[in-house]
Amino acid sequence: MTKHISWDEYFMGVALLSSYRSKDPNTKVGACIVNTDKRIIGIGYNGFPFGCSDEVFPWAREGETLDTKYPYVVHAEPNAILNSTSSLKGATLYVTLFPCNECAKLIIQSGIKHIVYMQDKYKDSEYYVASKRMFDAAGVTYQVMPEVKIIVGGYND
């Protein structure tokens, strides 16, 4: 019998691969949105908006607000939502980092109903607690998938 990866591994692999497009030197996040027919309908990664050069805008995490990345970066989840090719109603979001509160609002409003994530390194932050509160209230389910096999040159067990 031939080994193959699961749907969850496949779609999380796409999210992980998308994260490698990010030029953020500290936090690379990728997202993949899948409809109920298991078709990819949106992908994204964290980066600056179109027309905002990676060489001009800052990637710093500390300092004066306008000298950090925070007011400028578009997260992977909104990029995947904006890049979507069809309705997101009932879709599943695969994302490498649990969504922040701002992304949670967009996820809920877009109609996404399930989230599969790899890491939750900010779980104690109030913003991420707020995300979970909103997801719970809106009926958006979420589950961790912490381990994804990186496949290079074929699938080996």
Instruction: Indicate the structural class.
Output: alpha/beta
* Helix percent band: 25-40%
Q: Determine the mean pLDDT.
A: 92
Major sheet: arrangement of strands: 2-1-3-4-5
Beta fraction: 15-25%
Written as H for each helix and E for each strand, in order along the chain, the element string is HEEHEHEHE
Uncertain spans, ≥5 residues at pLDDT below 50? 152-157
Give the CA-CA distance, first to last residue. 13 Å
Radius of gyration: 16 Å
Count up the helices: 4
Total number of beta strands: 5
Which outline best applies? globular
The main β sheet shows up as: 5 strands, mixed
List the helices and strands and how they pair.
Elements: H1 7-19, E1 30-34, E2 40-45, H2 76-82, E3 92-97, H3 101-110, E4 114-119, H4 126-138, E5 141-144
Parallel strand pairs: 3-4, 4-5
Antiparallel strand pairs: 1-2, 1-3
Helix pairs in contact: 3-4
